[in-house]
């Protein structure tokens, strides 16, 4: 069993995102993230870039939940989208991103690591302690990662 | 400042309160509830919630924003109550016991919370929010796996049938309303839980007194400007930790008061919305991220809960479904928090822009404003 179509689709979107980050708009966006004052001084419309980034993020979120739910085969209308946020944030952070810097590599490495962690740790613990603690581990790991990112000292580079 | 500008500043300062009063008053007639019923409900809910909301005050004074980390204290209180039920300690003695068990846990959690927030200066609110989720994981681990296995539980009725872990819902019959019922005043048809209100009043006096002490003054100074406070010799980080510890301990006591009034404990999610609704209440009362008073707390609790009492029935009458009122409640809670945070950020940016303009002088500033010529400080802009 190898979900070729799914992987190709993800690869396509990863490639498009990678391309976008190297485009004119993408570069400007990265500049805003690293140093808003510097970006404004070089003539980038900071507010516009922030808006575009949030719009793109929301759009990809919409595509993402469709991809996610088609592989499950059912949808939960009322509460399904809300718990999607923290695992996604935790995954990109575990991949090495910080709150103002991230790359495609962070996304891919992070997803593999985070999902690996979530699927493997419970089975290890289950065989050790004979209990199912996957839910608790998921809460602690994903929120712990976010907390770690928030408390990391941000280096101000000039 | 022109009159119109003053009015718009006033509106942006109290926008949340004004919008809220309008919605609540408009929802009373369609709900069909009598004013007496609504008043009684508000009195009950004042006793139930005020203590929790008062716990938010000190971190605001210390410039740490709205303390979403108060959920940690709520968890400590719940652990205390679980033990009180386990040992079968009834009535107000049970509550005191729960407080004694919860207190050290709350101090420890508050200290951890303060340390974490000191590492995330300027992002205290979101950090507290995530920290509450994180500690929630540890709380669930403790209650679901440790209680009954590592820590023996004598009362088998509250333990899951598999032998360890606490049941989903805990009946607090033994301590139910034991604080409220010590002296229940009946005035003109209203029941007033006197002791609960006395405790809340004592806490208010404590807050007022605390603001005048050395530590309280230090807290205000830290809240104004951390750098200035640091150079004035105030131990900034320590003061911030103390503010959070006091807030967490108060939240612990507040959650115990809240739960004794409710009478049952949803073991795994009673604390989920504690911080959220407390923050919504104080914001509805007209507080902002940097400014709050005791009056804000009481106005907020009354308004928010008047809305909660009215909205399900108004939803029923207007749209034919009580669930719409329920959704409305969620929507209002999140809406109020989002609106106040956005207004706060907007005001801060506007104040910064105005400060820049005043530096630049009258030439490039708004012509109708202060028409004084820029006397020598034009070059600083």
Task: Report what the structure shows.
- The complex is a heterodimer of chains A (158) and B (381).
- Chain A is mainly alpha-helical and 158 residues long.
- Chain A has 2 domains: 1-76; 81-158, no CATH class.
- Chain A has helices spanning 4-22, 24-34, 36-41, 46-72, 85-94, 104-129, 134-151.
- In chain A, helix 2 (24-34) packs across helix 4 (46-72) and helix 6 packs across helix 7 (134-151).
- In chain A, 13% of the residues are buried.
- Chain B has 381 residues and is mostly helical.
- In chain B, the strands form 2 sheets. In chain B, strands 1-4 form a two-stranded antiparallel sheet. In chain B, strands 2-3 form a two-stranded antiparallel sheet.
- The relative contact order of chain B is 0.17.
Which features characterize this protein?
heterodimer, A: 158 residues, mainly alpha, 2 domains, 7 helices, B: 381 residues, ABC transporter involved in vitamin B12 uptake, BtuC, two-stranded antiparallel sheet, 4 strands, globular, disordered C terminus
